[in-house]
Amino acid sequence: MPSPRQYVNFQPDSQPGFLQGYQSRALGAGMGYFKDWYVEVNIVGVRSRFLGVCPADALAYHGDERSLDRYVGDTDDIYRTRLVDAWQLWTFAGTAYGIIKQLNSAGFNHIYIEEGATFGPDHSQWWKFWVIIDDTFDHVFGSVAWFMGDGYLMGGGKNLGFTNNPPNESSIRPIINKWKPATTILAQVIVILDGWVMGDPLVLMGDGHLLGGTAVNI
Question: What digits encode the pLDDT tens for the residues 1-43?
């Protein structure tokens, strides 16, 4: 038996003598080429089922099956590795670690999560939580392009874009809502652009000033 991709030669060579003319061999080679193609398609089809060896264009189907999104900037290898770890990643669904892990994969680091039982203006609202992205290290957001109102009050000023636009900025809230506990509500996503927060930023000084810097809600 010929190995895959060799039928184009094996087919005309194995024909009887009266089919060894130029036109007959060309016809046999054409049939062999079709067989090679058919074998190749089946090989790719079988390999596509296995995440470790599937072609790159099959990763999206594995991602849909595992409900893991591909973030802007993910290479094929990075996305493949995350898909291979899908079982372990989903064990952290509904946890702060799971949210942070996915935001890290999307390119956002230095994240911490505060819960309503110990954070915010009303500690009886345990189901609320805040995601705080400290961008004073990586500066992926840059600075605020334009504020309306009092931009130094967290919640008082309306941010109209950053000087930098991280590729996955629009995915932040969908990621959080996908990986958060089902019984909780995301109150705010706070981005600290510079400076630092002292104490509880939503209780401190009434509306919550960021001491020595800038923070916005997105």
Answer: 445 568 888 888 888 888 888 888 899 888 988 888 888 888 8
Look at residue 118 and tell me if it is in a domain: yes
Phi-psi region of 110 (alpha: psi -120 to 50; beta: other; left: phi over 0): left
Q: Is residue 163 part of a domain?
A: yes
User: Positive or negative CA dihedral for 102, 106, 112, 118?
Assistant: negative
In this structure, is residue 53 part of a structural domain?
no
**Residue 134's beta-bridge partner residues?**
192
pLDDT of residue 195: 65
In terms of domains, do 39 and 120 share one?
no
Task: List CB contacts of 39: < 8 A, sequence separation 6 or more.
Answer: 4, 5, 7
Residue position matching structure tokens 């939503």: 202
Residue 168, class by beta-carbon neighbours within 10 Å (0-12 exposed, 13-18 middle, 19+ buried)? buried
Return the closest-CA partner of residue 69 out of 163, 154, 175: 175
Distance CA 129, CA 125 (A): 9
Which pLDDT band, with edges at 50, 70 and 90, does 61 fall under?
Answer: very high
Average pLDDT over residues 98-121: 91
